[in-house]
Amino acid sequence: MQTIAQILATELAQPVQYVENVIALLDEGSTIPFIARYRKEQHGSMDDTTLRKLEDRLQYLRNLDKRRQEVKSAIDGQGKLTDELAAAIDNAGTLAEVEDLYRPYKQKRRTRATVAREKGLEPLALLLLAQEKDCPAPEDAAQAYIDPEKGVETPADALQGANDIIAEIISDDADIRKALRGLLLRQGRLKSVAATEEDSVYRLYYDFEQPLPKLAGHQILAVNRGEKEGFLSVTVLLDRDAALPMLRRAVVKPGSSSMAFLRDVCEDAYDRLIYPSLEREARSTLTESACEGAIGQFALNLKPLLLQPPVKGHVTMGLDPGYAHGCKVAVIDGTGKVLDTTVVYPTYGERQKKEAIARLTALCRKHGVAHIAIGNGTASRETEQMTVEMLRGLPGVSYMIVNEAGASVYSAGKLAAEEFPEYDVNLRSAISIARRLQDPLAELVKIDPKAIGVGQYQHDMPPKRLDETLGGVVEDCVNAVGVDVNTASASLLGYVSGLNGTTARNIVAYREANGAFPDRKRLLKVPKLGPKAYEQCAGFLRVPESKNVLDNTGVHPESYGAAEELLALCGFGDEDVRRGAVSQLMQKVQAMGEAAVAEKLGVGVPTLRDVVKELMKPGRDLRSDLPAPILRTDVLEIKDLKPSMVLTGTVRNVIDFGVFVDIGVHQDGLVHISQVCNKFIKHPSEVVAVGDIVKVVVLDVDEKKHRISLSMKQVKE
Fold it and tell me: Mean pLDDT, to the nearest integer, of 316-332?
C-alpha cells in the first residue's frame, strides 16, 4: 500500500522527497507562506496554491486513514474482520468506499430485515441467496419456516421476510453500490420542475434536465437554492433498465431454482433501498463538488481584489452615498488619518445639491484632496453625478467608484468602534471607503471575506470550508505584500505568518507603549511572541525606520549573513542598497555563476535569487507593478450607452457563466462566457481575473431591467 506522501506526490506530480519535506514542515508548525517563501530548496519552489492543496489533501488522507482504523477496529470487535476485508478497507481510496465496506457491520435502526431476522427467516434468505444446485424451489423451502406464533402464517409471509433480508444484504454490498454509483454519475440526469406557478428568479429551472457530467456548478447551486425556497422540485434520474441488469448479474445465477424470486428481490432492493440512497449521495456529491468549485472561484476572485494597486500618499475623500441619512463624507491624509468629516444632502433637491458641492469643494481645497472614493451602494449614481459636476471646478482631482461590499458590516462592528470611537457608524463607513482606495488590502482584511462580494452563492457554502479557504487567500496576499510593523493594524498583523489575534494585538500594544520598533529583533520583546513565531513572521514584517536596510526587505533574518556576504562579494554596501544603487547586482551574480555564488554563501539558488531581488528593490510593494485602477473625471449614464460603443472597464466579478465589468455607469455590464474570447474556454477565469482592466464593446442595453450586455471578443484592435 502506498504511503500518504507517495499518494500526494503522484497527485501533485512532485518528487516524494519534496512532499515528505513539506509534511515535516507542516507538522513542525510552519505556515504555508513561510514554507512557500523561505523553504524553497526543500520543496522545489512549489507555489502557495500547490502547498495549500497539499495541506488539504494531507488532512483528508489522514482522516481517511484514521477512519480505516476505526472501521477495522469496530468490525474486529464483532469478530468478523477477515484478512480479505481488512485489505479491502486498507485499499479503499475514499471515505465513501470505506463506509460502503462498513455498511453490513454497522449498527442499524430497526428495519424490515431486522424484523424478518427476529422471525427466524435469515437461514431461508441465505439458502435462497446461495442458489446451490440442490436448493428447493422458494415456495417449497418456505414451508419449513411457517410459524404462526412469530407471525409467519404462510409461505408467502416467509418469502416476504426472506426478500427483506436479501434486499438489505444486496443493498449493503460494497461492490454493487460502487458499480451502481459509477453508473449513476456517468449516465444519471438531474431534473427540476416548477413546484409553484409563481414566477421567480428560478424560472430557467422550471423545466430543466441535464446529464450529471455536464452540470455546471452554478446550475447545481441554483437548483439547490430553488428547491430549498420551495420553487423547484428536484430529482435525479437513471434509466432503470440500465441499472437492473447490472444488479441482477451481480446477484442472480442463471438457471437456479430461486432465479425468478431473486430477480424480483433485486428490483425491490434497487427501488426501495439502493437507488434512494444513491440519489441522496449523488445530490450530496454534486453539491460538494459545486461548493468546492464556487469556493475555489471565490478564492481566485478574492486574490486580485486584495492585491489591487494602492493609491497611496494622497489626501483622499470618501463618500458613502445615501438618501434618507444623506451622503457621509470623510477626508483622510496619505497615511489614512482622519482630517475631517461631514454629511451633505445632494439628493434632497437642487438647492441642497449646490450646498453640498460648495461644502465639498471647500473641503477639497482646504485639505488638498487628490482623489475621491465613492461607494457603489444606494444613491451612488446621484452622488457620482454631483461629484463630476463639482470636479469641473477642481482640475486635477479624480474619482473612483469603490465596491463598498462589507463596509456597513465593518462600520457597525466591534473593530470599527475600537478604531474610531469618536465617529458614528455612518461616518466610519465613509472612512473605510476612502481607505479602500488608498490601500485595499489593509482595509479589506478587517472584513469577513464572505462579505466582500466576489463570489456566487457564497451563503450556501459550508462555512468552515469557506472560511478556511478565504482565510488562506488573505494570509497569502498579506504575506506576499509584507507589512509595516510600525503602522499596521492588529487586523492586518493577524494575517502575518506565525502571528495570531493575541500576538498581533500584543505587537500594537507594545508599539503604543514603547514607541516604534527600531528593528526586527525588538519583536522578540513582545509578550507571547516566541522564537518559533519570530522565525515564521520576521521575514514578512518590514521596519523602514531600522538602521539595518535588510529589516525593510523580504530577506529573512536567517539569511542576513548571506545577504551581507553577497553585497561584499559584489562590491556593494548597505548604503548602496538604501540608495537603490545596486541595479547591477543580478548581472554580477550571473557573471560569477548562480550555483557557485549560492554554494559560497551556504544557501540554495532559489534563496539567492530571492535575496538578490529584495536587495535591488528594498521596501518594494509587488502591487505597484500591477496596472493602476481607473480614476475618472466624467460620468456616463446607462442611457448614454449605444450598441458598438467601445469602453474601458474594470472586472468586478468572475463567475461560471461570465464576467461582470464596471464601465462607469453604476450598473455593471455582463460579458457572457461566449463573448469573453475567440477560443473555447471552460471558465472565464482562464483568461480574465478580478481587477483586470479590459476593453469591451456594448452589445445591448435594457434600461428598464438595468441590464448591459458586453463583449470582449468583438473589440477591434
Answer: 93
Residue 29 to residue 391: CA distance in whole angstroms: 53
CATH number reported for the structural domain that contains residue 12 in this entry: 1.10.10.650
pLDDT at residue number 54: 97
Find the domain containing 698 and state its range: 638-711
Query: Is 335 within the bounds of a domain?
Result: yes
Task: Give CA separation, 24 vs 5, 42, 58, 684, in Å.
Answer: 11, 10, 12, 37
The size of the chain, in residues, is 717
Q: Hey, which bits of 263-402 come out as E strands?
A: 316-320, 327-332, 338-344, 371-375, 398-402
How many structural domains is the chain composed of? 3
What's the number of CA atoms in the CB half-sphere (13 Å) around residue 439? 27
Alpha helices in 143-215 (DSSP H): 155-171, 174-187
The domain that holds 657 is classified in CATH as 2.40.50.140
- pLDDT for the residue numbered 406: 76
Angstrom CA distances, 704 to 366, 443, 567, 707, stand at 42, 35, 65, 8
Q: Final residue of a domain: which of 423, 438, 453? A: 438
Q: Over 90: is that where the pLDDT of 341 sits?
A: yes
Task: Please say whether the beta carbons of 710 and 675 come within 8 A.
Answer: yes
Residue 372 DSSP SS3: strand
Instruction: Give the CATH number for residue 346.
Output: 3.30.420.140
Query: What are the pLDDT digits (tens) for 57-105?
Result: 999 999 999 999 999 999 999 999 999 999 999 999 999 999 999 999 9
C-alpha cell at 607: 534563496
pTM comes to: 0.81
User: Which of 65, 68, 66, 30 is closest to 51 using CA atoms?
Assistant: 30
What would the pLDDT profile of 155-202 be if each residue is shown by its tens digit? 999 999 999 999 999 999 999 999 999 999 999 999 999 999 899 999
Task: Judge whether 532 and 499 are in contact, CB under 8 Å.
Answer: no
Question: What are the C-alpha distances in Å from 270 to residues 117, 503, 668?
Answer: 20, 58, 50
